[in-house]
# Entry
Amino acid sequence: MNTLQSKKILLIISGGIAAYKSLELIRLLKKAGAGVRCILTQGGAKFITPLSVSALSGEQTHTDLWSLKDETEMGHIRLSRESDLIVVAPASASFIAKMAFGLADDLGTAALLAADKPVLVAPAMNHMMWNHPATQENIGTLMRRGVKTAGPCAGDMACGETGIGRMAEPEEILTSIRAHFERAKKLSGLRALVTSGPTFEPIDPVRFIGNRSSGKQGHAIAAALASCGADVTLVSGPTALPDPASVKTIHVETADEMISACRAAAPADIAICAAAVADWKPAQTQKKKIKKDKNAPPTLTLTENPDILSALAQPGPRRPRLVIGFAAETENILESAHAKRMKKKCDWIVANNVGTKEKIFGSDGNHVHLITASGQMEWRGSKKDIADRLVLEIMDHFKNLKLSEAAE
Ligand code: C5P
# Structure
């Protein structure tokens, strides 16, 4: 089946000489069976006309955020919500900067800010503009937010200079669009359960035992699984993060609530325990705020919390086919993580060194080792990159399982 058949693409054409190539992109997308709606920015309209865009897309071309007629018939919110993918081609340096800053001062940027859909950008600009630290920071910001890129490529530019900045050819952009939709199906049919964030164990109505986990890694994993088509339930302790798109998020506070939510979400094919569950909780939670006593501070009696990872990894008919744990270690990272994998009976463990100068808790970056029964890999990158790498390994694992099941 053709991956692009009936897919709805919103194409935003910003200002650049490469805009003429977008006409070919519209033609290729239509030929592949996709529906294409277009927004032509003011800059884009300096290079190609709404008439040629409409003639090729077979749809009205949208140009103006302030047009009463356009906004009544097809507002910017509907334009973005009714698409499966938003493509910005060409994406000029200025348009990328506006996206990075979250500006919404024209129809294209307003549609993007209102969008809950995946976005692919095809940058096109002079090589000095592309290499400028401002543009590199802006594109980095977009990529950390999950925006995909196609190109730019190296070659001769319209301005007569040579370097990286040419927009990818329409066929290459089409390949990236296809790859996006193919990837989006790779884990379809699989259910995944992810735990993330800290747990807060109440001492009394105002105090609790907690930890510094931000939940960024667990949330990024849930989002990466969902973007590959998995049916994801995220059980999250208290974090400052928004719920990831296309993920069923259940908010909990304590380890007991977390394990109940995990049990309720079962059965799952994949379980990933990225939460920093408090090891202990107060044996008793006081109903009223403990008064500050003049004589002595109160003594807290602690009791052990349930181990969610161990519980999920116990052999049995309801055990997920792949159980992955995390191990935050400060010394003998690999040995401790290997031992933890055996003790907790999980299939894989992601070990990270939280004792180095690299700040891990709360930061956007991570440095981990993935430990499986057959070996280990070392990854460094943003928490989003680590999530993507892990999801690629998960895809391979299930592909191999399918192959061996088929061979039996
Ligand atoms: O034992 P430790 O806390 O080092 O193990 C870390 C791994 O176990 C993580 O995957 C964490 O999510 C999981 N864990 C859990 N329930 C606990 C403690 C840890 O699921 N009570």
Observations:
- The chain has two domains: 8-183, 191-407.
- The pocket of cytidine-5'-monophosphate is lined by residues 195, 255, 273-275, 277, 305, 307-309, 325-327, 340 (CB under 6 Å).
- The longest helix spans residues 383-407.
- The mean pLDDT is 92.
